[in-house]
């Protein structure tokens, strides 16, 4: 099944995929979601902003491990928070043993 | 991603779940799914009945889960998993993990007959119940997994649930299940180890993971991990596994009083000293019973 161009435009998430089926036997029997949720920038939900202070960080990975989004990635051994998706739950601030992540008011 | 020296990943590094899902801030169930996908990998089919996760996953045609997901009716998680498994066997795909993923309402109340049937048939799948101790998705209604003393929207006025929590793991052990365990989102290494162990055992496997819920338990979202740790350290939600009727209990270094766990949560804020001492008695006797079972094995 080929998707028309107009349909492709609707699925504009970063992970949007188009899958082509050779014939009707290849097609799934029910509706299938093929696109991830990266289109949904949940960063707008945030009321506080966690900010990493890299000099205090000891790279213990606890913030990365307990991020429910997950929107913390480790770059050069230090956590980097993706503010497009961070909902501001402040778990990373709470679990950090060195207090290296501080909370700031979200500036609108 | 470069891995600099000194970074010790205790859980698998690869991420299967994508951000942008619809969970509340500080959701414990989301963490549980993140760890489960890390443990089982991409060769997994997830069966989800109506529960928080059917919303968290995202609206059609989007899905945050990164692996095939079968969304089914409330009471049918285990029976759908049996069907998916039968389909995979006909197609000769024996290496695909089937994971049934239900909340405590879909496990202990509504889904129990399907689960009991599937376990009795001995179908080879993993059933994970993420236990947030009420029907959180529909608005904090009391379930049979709600603990004694907790407030919910269906315990009217200032009253609270006066009955203890249903022990699903014991119900599963009574089915002579090959593997049953409890887990806790504050201990992801333990959970992932248990899932990997479960994956290598043939037959039905049951894991119940405590998933604190900021909305339903009425605490500030950053306390999710702290509450998970306290649930283990106060022995309110003990971590143990049952392999072929043999109990293995994980013990905290020192047992803390239950008040430390209760005072952080708004759902327990109405409790008076006598009720708290009653709860402490409940917890102590359950813990003693569990240790006795471990000794007997």
Give an overview in words:
The complex is a heterodimer of chains A (108) and B (297). By secondary structure, chain A is of the alpha+beta class. Chain A folds into 2 domains: 1-39, no CATH class; 42-105, Alpha-Beta Plaits. Chain A contains 3 helices and 4 strands. Chain B has 297 residues and is an alpha/beta fold. Chain B contains 11 helices and 8 strands. Chain B is globular and about 60 Å long. The model of chain B has no long low-confidence stretch (mean pLDDT 92). Classes of the chains: A alpha+beta (108), B alpha/beta (297). Chain A binds chain B through residues 11, 13, 15, 31-42, 45, 59, 61, 65-66, 68-71, 73-77, 82, 84-85, 87-91, 93-95, and chain B through 1-2, 4, 6-11, 15, 17-23, 25-28, 30-31, 34, 58, 60-64, 66, 69, 188, 214, 220-226.
Derived from helix and strand composition plus strand pairing, the structural class of chain B reads: alpha/beta
| CA(first)-CA(last) distance of chain A | 44 Å
Largest interface: A-B, 40 and 41 residues
Computed Rg of chain A: 19 Å
Return the domain count of chain B: 1
Number of domains of chain A: 2
* Order of strands across the main sheet of chain A: 1-4
The arrangement of helices and strands of chain A along the chain is: HEHEEHE
Fold topology:
The complex is a heterodimer of chains A (108) and B (297).
Chain A: H1 5-10, E1 48-52, H2 62-65, E2 72-75, E3 78-81, H3 91-95, E4 101-105
Antiparallel strand pairs in A: 1-4, 2-3
Chain B: H1 28-40, E1 44-48, H2 52-56, E2 69-71, H3 77-90, E3 97-103, H4 104-109, H5 112-121, E4 126-131, H6 168-174, E5 179-184, H7 188-199, E6 205-210, H8 214-217, H9 224-233, E7 239-243, E8 246-250, H10 259-262, H11 273-296
Parallel strand pairs in B: 1-2, 1-3, 3-4, 4-6, 5-6
Antiparallel strand pairs in B: 5-7, 7-8
Helix pairs in contact in B: 1-7, 3-5
